[in-house]
Amino acid sequence: MYKRLLVNTTILLFLLGLLGTDWVAAQQKKTYTANPVQISQWINSTFARGKTPPFSFVYDGVESKNVIRSWSFTSNKLRSEDPNVLKYRFTYESKRTGLRIDCDVDGYTDFNAVKWVLYFTNIGDGDSKTISDLKVIDLDFEYVKSGDFILHSAEGNHISKADFHPRSRVMAVGENIQIAPEGGRSSEVAFPFFNIESPADQGFIFAVGWSGTWGSDFVKKSDKSITVKSGMKRFESYLKSGETIRTPSMCLMFWNSKNRIDGHNKFRRFVLAHQSRKIDGKFAKYPLSSGFNYRDPAPCTEYSCLTADYAIAMIRRYTQFGLVPEVYWLDAGWYTGASNFENGQTWANTVGNWTVDKYRFPNGLKPISDEAHKVGAKFMVWFEPERVIRGTQWAEEHPEWMLDIPNSNKDTYLLFDLGNEDARKWMTKWIIDMMHENGIDYYRQDFNMQPDIYWEANDEPGRAGIKEIRHIEGLYAFWDDLLKEFPNMLIDNCASGGRRLDLETISRSAPLWRSDYYHYDDPDGYQGHTYGLNYFLPLHGTGILQTDKYSFRSSMSSALIYNWKITDKHVSYVDMQSCLNEYADIRSYYYEDYYPLVGIEDITRDNIWVAYQLHKPSDESGVVVAFRREKCNEDKLTVKLGGVLADKSYIITNKDNSDFKVIKTGKELSEGFDLKIDNPRGSLLLHYTLVN
């Protein structure tokens, strides 16, 4: 557990109207009034000369709040290409201590949001003193009304049915809720996105951008105030002369409503507008994908038995049946050694051999990508460059770039040292060259190991956390270089499923396979994953192996991978076409506002309904997706729809029953509308539009 710090800075938020506030800068005891507050004012008042900034640390045993106001301070407004984004650099410098802190701040005027990251530099001639207890955010939020503070969050990824399960917790005065992931991947067990609901019909979304191990503290100080602190969980280090490190990034987005779901939807729109991959100035829609007749017979694993001829034949077969995806996805097992089953080799224990298996692919992967391009599809290939198996090509050729654990056994992995600049540049060129040579359009990166023990084992004495920082910096630089080389490329972020989701990774990538939950045939689990993730993230996907409506609808989200076995005589390509046509009809709604309709009680149970709504404010249309699980005895569920206009009328249709048409006012829909599914393990898909 990490130490609790005294609060440095108080921001008193009295939100009157749309984030209109009177707030007090506690250090100066001076009141500022503005109604409504603009995010530029918030930034310039929070990061102001002579004021304790909204971060904290201990330097050589001294708390920063006691000294930093005496440091040299400069403020620079930077050029921004987006008129809705303000950019600043605030610099705090002490020549006496030899330390400079650059704080880069982005303000989003269209969402009342702010994000910042710190850069610490040793400007002295020798080693700096030790920096510890570094909190990139350390703030009090105090409101005019007293009452309950509720921390809304989601489970991280456990590779379970409960992955991303929504949680809400009423905080007690004096309680310190500490949340952190495990293993060095940012969303393993914990999830770095939070919605803090105050008693004053307002609140804020808080998000962490760090793809290693972060730690966040939430403390209810009184019936009117809450403290938020967050940073790296493990950092205590000096800096060498001239050395610079970056920290996690922190994001706040303020909302004002009687319904905290409005805050979630505002954040979903914020993600699409400012924290997601852009192509040609628009957020990138992640694809509808398919593989190459997934699930070969044992002992084949993944695509370790695939050949070029078979892959090309599958593309032609999918084309024959009118099932061409947007992306053909080649997962693990295409590389040298992955099919050497007689010697105990599999896809998993040959990573590090990043050369194409010449026996199965004599001309590389280019013939497959050429065939995919002929039918109008992209080609995506799986890589896992950070995990390296002993004895593989990379491990043997570049042992100096491998991080190991002292006295570890031969079965442990090696970690490719992304913090080594020479190693990272070499790896970047290797992957870029492979993508060019093989016609690869999209890049899929997996990460099936816990790196934290490698970082800790290789830190220099007195430098705890430096290896983690350098690795995460290297990961971002690697991805940024790939995206620069391939400006139309998408990155699929997989780390044993969705175990590396945070504000930094979602700005560069999205999880097309959000969980490695091994019960691939369990649609109830997939329903729950969609239900929980949608609170915060609009871009994510998962797989589907069945064509029945209950299973297919359980897997629907903004992205989808269909792994139907099209050589199985017991399946129907007509059913497959029907599923894809239905998905095409409603897919766009997954980028819109989201309303959970059954609360947040245990949604892993098999005797309940699960239902949610997707609403498009631009034309007042939407869909309702509902499931009656196998052991649920109730054939009706009353739901209250969100987002609809009380004084407007809506016509509701049923995708499974063309004769079903009902007209309801928005007021009726928001006060209670009955859903009906006659049989257990049944689903319902309703569509509504405004009555002309």
Indicate the percent of residues in helices.
10-25%
Class based on secondary structure composition and strand pairing: alpha+beta
Distance between the amino and carboxyl termini: 59 Å
What is Rg?
Answer: 26 Å
What value does the average pLDDT take? Answer: 93
Total DSSP helices = 13
Shape category:
globular
**Share of residues in strands:** 25-35%
| Major beta-sheet overview | 9 strands, antiparallel
Description of the molecule:
The chain has 692 residues and is α+β, with helices and mostly antiparallel strands. Helix 6 runs parallel beside helix 8 and helix 7 packs across helix 8. The radius of gyration is 26 Å and the shape is globular. The termini are far apart.
